[in-house]
Amino acid sequence: MARLELSNLHAEVADGDEKILEGVDLEVESGEIHALMGPNGSGKSTTAKVIAGHPAYEVTEGEVLLHIEDDEFGEDIEIDEDQRTWNLLDLEPNERAALGIFLGFQYPAEIEGVTMTNFLRTALNAKIEEREELFEEEDGDSDEDEAEDEGFESSPMEGPADEGEIGVAEFQEILQEKMEQLEMDERFAQRYLNAGFSGGEKKQNEVLQAAILEPSIAVLDEIDSGLDIDRLQDVSTGINALPDEQGTGILQITHYQRILDYVEPDHVHVMLDGEIAKSGDASLAEELEDKGYDWVREEVYGTA
Amino acid sequence: MSTQVHANLTEEQVRQISGELDEPEWLTETRLEALDALADLEMPDVIRTPGRDWTNLHELDFESFVDPLNAAEDKDQVGPADAEVLSWAEAVAEHEDLLKEHFGSVVDLQENYLTALSTALFSTGTVVYVPEGVDAEDVTIRTEQNSQSLFNYTLVVTEESSSVTILERQSTGQKQDEQYYSGVVEVVAGENSSVQYGSLQNLSEEAYNFTVKRGDAGTYATIDWIEANIGTQLTKTEVSTELNGESSETQIVGAFYGHNDQHFDLDAKVWHRAEHTTADLVTRGVTDDIARSVYEGVQDVGSEAWDTSSYQRENTLMLSDESEADASPKLIINNHDTEASHSATVGQIDQEDLLYMTSRGVNPRAARNMLVEGFFVPVFEEIAVDELREDLEELIATRLRTRD
């Protein structure tokens, strides 16, 4: 089990003093589906980016904590009692990923010249390697660890630097299986990462990556925007599989009720002006659809 | 630098070089004329903006520096049996008529100070002759410089409907504090012939390098260049094609990676001089540390060049704040029946791209390396010579991995 806890989170744009988050409190647990809704500019995407560690935002107050239980990463990784709560704000984005945080981007980057297969296998191996480092720190002194790191990249015993825990053949199998589940064309695997992908293909690819990296908590930033109905159903199937098959906790950021018909949330949160203004169950999303955000504003602040 | 004839360079030296190669009188005279001309010739053009030359070719006092009688190299010149791949001395002995016809026919040997210097002093070279209808793959020319200065000359002649793939590499064997490599390459592509000329320059980072490579494409001929620059502290190169024959084509693919205080000044030029000609210029490069790159690309469409297609793009990726990259793509059109494009970009690694990769677990250094290698891929994809592409990929990967 894992639990992501945002408490009193304040953030602003790093090269300005524009405040965006003004005290966000939110918890997402393994296996749960949360929908985070709200009008443009309310701070939804910023929340996602701060969780992932985007350098453009500076956290001025509050915490982002990840709580994990001792069996979160299986039998191979032993998690001591003092390693069960992590302050994500102290960690680099890749370290956060190693601890099981995944951000599905609203606008996934197009990376020329790097095939999806190459990238995803590198990411998967890097995640495994980084996780081992994070949880091995207690053993031995740090000099030894460093020597080990260097050895890994160049040692002929370990093979070339681009080999890793998961070899090419094994990875191909994993990739093929996940792509079939998502009904993705296998040719995607050899295409450059998102380069020339349609909007829908990019979103599908985000879900595929989540399926392969098996995150503890996945934050999906407007994964539904710009999707036609067929693609929306495919993507939704992929999202539902994350909690069902891997126990992933989902924080789904969306403008629209539409996707919530396919990915039914356990909890719905409404964000206004950088805070969670109202939380409820799935019926809250339907109510929002009817009454709009001003209704929440009025109800919470007594003004529209 | 001053361009008066220096006491270091004498007619006797030139005669000695020519004599040792057993050259006929007309060649000796050509060299002596080039020596004479030094006094009046200027350095190759570099781009100038007020107050600044983009490349300073005056750092080295060439005349006092060069040591033409002590040239030393390790050379391989290999090719298939049905094409002739000859050393300069062999070519002089066996193909004087060929040399008489083509030597200096594409590159003006007195075009500037450095070409004239090369003409007067070259002591080594290669002549590749491909007879009619012959397809010659895998011609390799490897030059390892072991002396303070080395002047190299290459001539490629392809007869009708023949083809050749040439891979040329330059490297440094015995390194010195300062070294100078100079190369002139002329390609004469006969009717309906095809020349692919790949060059991988990986000289010592103390070396200076001046090269000009120019081709004359006949009717329906194709000349494709690959120009890769990794080594030297200062490189000034021109790679160019004159599309003189109807329906001739050229492609110029460039790749460079400068770090430390390396300086690359790279020109890619094409002259459309006949109907239905096509040119495609693609260069990508990286600058790091305090390295500097200057790129000048010229597409010159002549008034007789009806139905021209001409495309040019150049992209430079800067890995450090202190490196510099300038690009000047130029398009000169004197015939309206032309489809053309030209573009150049200079940028740094996109932080959003980097975050996308690190957020999936890849560490920042590995992510950057993947982005840089990925940046070169569109150029790699244009390199049809596998060996050259693999060597270049390896050199780039190695350089990236030595970086923090």
Automatic annotation (TrEMBL), chain A:
PROSITE patterns: ABC_TRANSPORTER_2
Keyword ATP-binding attributed: yes
InterPro entries: AAA+_ATPase, ABC_transporter-like_ATP-bd, FeS-cluster_ATPase_SufC, P-loop_NTPase
Listed GO MF terms: ATP binding; ATP hydrolysis activity
Region (Disordered): 133-163
SUPFAM superfamilies associated with the record: P-loop containing nucleoside triphosphate hydrolases (SSF52540)
Domain ABC transporter: start-end pairs: 4-298
Keywords carried by this UniProt record: ATP-binding, Nucleotide-binding
Biased amino acid composition, Acidic residues: 133-152
Protein name, per record: FeS assembly ATPase SufC
Organism annotation: Natrialba taiwanensis DSM 12281
Classification lineage: Archaea, Methanobacteriati, Methanobacteriota, Stenosarchaea group, Halobacteria
From TrEMBL, chain B:
InterPro entries (UniProt xref): Fe-S_cluster_assembly_SufBD, SUF_FeS_clus_asmbl_SufBD_core, SUF_FeS_clus_asmbl_SufBD_sf, SUF_FeS_clus_asmbl_SufD, SufBD_N
Record-annotated SUF system FeS cluster assembly SufBD N-terminal domain positions: 75-137
GO biological process: iron-sulfur cluster assembly
Organism domain of life: Archaea
Pfam families: SUFBD_core, SufBD_N
Domain SUF system FeS cluster assembly SufBD core: 144-375
Family of this protein: Belongs to the iron-sulfur cluster assembly SufBD family.
Protein name in the entry: SufBD protein
Species this protein is from: Natrialba taiwanensis DSM 12281
Source lineage: Archaea, Methanobacteriati, Methanobacteriota, Stenosarchaea group, Halobacteria
